Structure formats: C-alpha cells, structure tokens
Amino acid sequence: MIVLxxxxxxxxxxxxxxxNPSLKGKPVAVCVYSGRTKxxxxxxxxxxxxxxxxxxxxxxxxxxxxxxxxxxxxxMRKDLYKEISDRVMxxxxxxxxxxxxxxxxxxxxxxxxxxxxxxxAMDLAKRLKEDILRKEGLRVTxxxxxxxxxxxxxxxxxxxxxxxxxxxxxxxxxxxxxxxVPGVGKKTEEILKERGIKTLRDVRELRIxxxxxxxxxxxxxxLMSLAFNTYNEQVKPRQVSHRGRYVTLTxxxxxxxxxxxxxxxxxxxxxSKINGxxxxxxxxxxxxxxxxxxxxxxxKFALTREYANVVSIELLKKIIExxxxxxxxxxxxxxxxxxxxxxxxxxx
Length: 348
Ligand code: DCP
Ligand code: CA
Ligand code: CA
Prior knowledge:
The two termini are 24 Å apart. This protein is of the alpha+beta class. It is built from 14 helices and twelve strands. The radius of gyration is 23 Å and the shape is globular. Bound molecules: 2'-deoxycytidine-5'-triphosphate and calcium ion (2 copies). One calcium ion (CA) binds at residues 7-9, 11, 105. 2'-deoxycytidine-5'-triphosphate binds at residues 7-12, 44-45, 57-58, 104-105, 159-160.
C-alpha cells in the first residue's frame, strides 16, 4: 500500500491571508468569539509568525491579545473554509483511487495503483502540491508512506509547505516517539514514559499482554501493529457530506441572464456526480475579489434535478441582491444526499 496524507498548512489563517493579501508577512490569529463578552473565546489557529510569538490554537483570545500586541486578530469564517476545503478535497481525490477525508483540512489518498514505488508516489505528491497551489493558492504538507499512520507522522514532521517520505520503514518505525502516534493521548504517553517506553522500538520489546494491562487492549494492539509494521487499515472512502460543482464565468458579471446557463450547468454536473438526491442545496458565488458568498436552503424531502434548478436561480437572485460585487465563479453544493436504491446498491 502507498498512502498520501495531505494536511493544509495553518489552514484557517492561510485562507484569511489568501483573501486579504495585506495580512501577508504579519502575524495573524483566527478567533472564535463566544459572544459572552467582547473578547471571550479562543484562538482557532494562527499563522507561523504568530506561533513564534507563542499564540497557538486553543489559547484564550484575551491572553493572546496580551502577548501579541502587533498580531492581527480576525474572526473565524467557517463556511468560507468549508467551501475551500471542499475544493481542495476534490483536487486531492483525483490523485488516488480512494480518498478518506479525516477532517476539514486532512485527507488520506490511496495511490497504490497510480504509483509503482515511493519515487513515483513522491512525484505524484509533488504535482498535487503544485496543483493545489496553482488552483487554490494554498500550501499543504504531504506525507508519503506505506500506511495511513506512517504517512501522517512523516507529514507532521515536515510542516509547513513540506513533502516527507518514509523510505526506510524499519528505521522510521524504530524512532517514532509515542507522543507522535496519532490517537494516543497524553495519559497513555505518560503511563508508558514512566516505564521507560518512549518509542515504537521500545514497544516491540514488550509482550502484548503486558502492554494491554497498561493501556488497554485496543490501544495495545494498535501500538503493536504499528511497531511490527502489520498495521494496514485501508483508506476508507468517507461519504463526503456535500458534493459540489463550480464553473468560472466567461467574464465577471452581476447580470443574471449571463449567469443562468452557468448555474444550470453547475447543478446538472453536481447531480451527475451523486448517487441519490439531495435535501440541501447551496449556491456559492466567488466574487471578483475572490471572497465567497453563499446562500442555501434545506428541505425535508429530496430534491429532483428540475426542482434544484429552480431553487438555484432563487438563491442566485438573493446573492445578487445582497451583494454589490461582480461574480467570477459560480457553484452549487448539494448536501444531505439520500442514496437511491438502485439495483447496483443491492448488488453491493
Ligand atoms: N482548529 C480549531 N481549533 C483547534 C485546532 C484546530 O478550530 N483547537 C481548526 C483551525 C485549523 C484547522 O482546524 O486551521 C486545522 O487544524 P490543524 O491542527 O491541522 O492546524 P493548522 O492547519 O491550523 O496548522 P498546521 O500548519 O499545524 O497544520
Ligand atoms: Ca490537520
Ligand atoms: Ca493543517
């Protein structure tokens, strides 16, 4: 198996930099305001300049403002990041045979059939990085490895804007610290450290029964499988909750008659990608300055393509009424997709 793990660098903050170039070169922190008092809430993430000042995810906004006088604090725009994540993921998906979306900014791709060896996989990863940078303006870090966990660990070590590969698997495994293993918490780490178990090589010296007494059966067999390189969890194609299609207009415009054929094409193509019918539809407009405005609607029933075409026009009108900018790209995103019971489904 050859797996790529893709992780977008300082994701929310990088999107903010992208949409507001005046932030480039300055420390930036993205805030989740709880709304109770003016500055109550926490930092969602920060760019690397802000991190150097000590401002990190999870920190209270009040505290961050104390230590970072020159830091630019911006409010979180989750919908915007979700749109951009969807677009990055759809680029990523074309590089492998199956993709597992692990979080808003992380995905595993199985490239075993696209790359015959690690060198070819590296090449694929390099092209994927360039592709995401060219199409979306974002930098990512990619790890290439013989399984999901090793690919993730090597990516983590190469952040930001990195490309890491596990070439000497045995040596790589030997040197993995327990604290680097995804899914192993602080508590487990402490328990093992007290007994002098710091790396996966140390784990390999133990008997599984003894390890299980310390950390529980499932964690023990997980760690053992990693240590003996028998871990081979497959990349599980995760049902993407939304499916979308975006098209670029031939010119930036606010003229609905010009946009109509494009939005129809986006709806039709989005429908042809899904296996089932959506109960949710969003129209997403990428404005001339690359800002994103979206309007959506949820239903208690599944929408046919014809109905979705009508709704999409309504939503587009709302966007044009609510915003004065010209539109550059228009997209449709379908959500809450209920699967149809076709013959194909019975055969699975
Ligand atoms: N996030 C959040 N609150 C946290 C941690 C993360 O809201 N406590 C959000 C903001 C991040 C995104 O999830 O941008 C992805 O999390 P990562 O852990 O991958 O961190 P970043 O992408 O920000 O940085 P890195 O460059 O380390 O990957
Ligand atoms: Ca991440
Ligand atoms: Ca990230």
